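Hi V.,

You were right to ask for the full record rather than a summary. Here it is.
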Amino acid sequence: MGVVLRAFKTKQPFLLLFLPIIAVAFWLKWFINPVINWDVDNLMPFASLLVNSLKNTPLVIGIVSVVFILLTSYGLYFINERYQILRKGSNLPSLFYLLLVSALSSCIGFNPVIFAAFFILIAFERLLFSYKMHKNISSLFDIGFAIGVATGFYFYSGVFLAFVILSLFVIGRVSLREFLALIVGVLLPALFIWTYYFYTDQLSLLVSKLNYGFSEGLDFIAFSFYQWVFIGFVALLYVISLAGMFLRNALNEIFDIKFFTLLFWLTAFGLALPVLFFPKGVEIVFIINIAVAFFLSRYFVMQRHRWLGDAFILLFIAAVVLLQFPALLNYF
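Predicted structure:
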């Protein structure tokens, strides 16, 4: 299994061809019996539009969901390559994101946050671009627009507007024009949604969707004891990686410091949802895992003891497989 870790530590793009195979393997059980557990009638407007356009065919909707998970996974590869965050292991963030979102079987299947995560990742990339390339106004509009679209899929995505505002102070790019560009970007998808429902005389339906947004989500009871153990294991690796970076001053370049600081706050804002609205909002894990994937990747890239890294990656992959196929535990 150490071969897997060493292979994904390389910068070979062809390894990304294995990700669709991994995704289909983990979703195979759901594909055999595709069921949508969400209240389709009360989905946020963009998610509702997607479901209705696919004529409520669960299998097709599931395939589209997997495609967006892969797009998000490849997006992590793009960010790592463009900004040279991990100078080794450019494939690791993509692999870890896919493993993380596959670990919790309760989240497998159609989930609006899958699509929201893709647009939140776009917003995050544009935030990095704004800092690196000093393209503030247009980038801030793009960020706001991406968050607005994400909220059109998943209600709680709107909390990341506060994350972006905080991030502007972290990276030192704050002005009234930039703030207005951000707000205009957020409001544009909202205006489109309001106009559509107003034109079709369905404003009451829009209001009911927004009210439902406060209560939508998976019940935490859907997570098994073993899944909570896995979450604890991931949290431990996250804390170890975080401590290794910030307590030992392991980051030398300013951009790297800003990057992982933003990822820390992305995790914090994401975790605030299930904490404040517990047990609702647990599915926000799809967005949190964007940050977690980078922290875990850096831990394995910087791991000096090869045997320890190999052991952890073996345990990690084995845990994901067992969580998806718990019947395998009967053989032990």
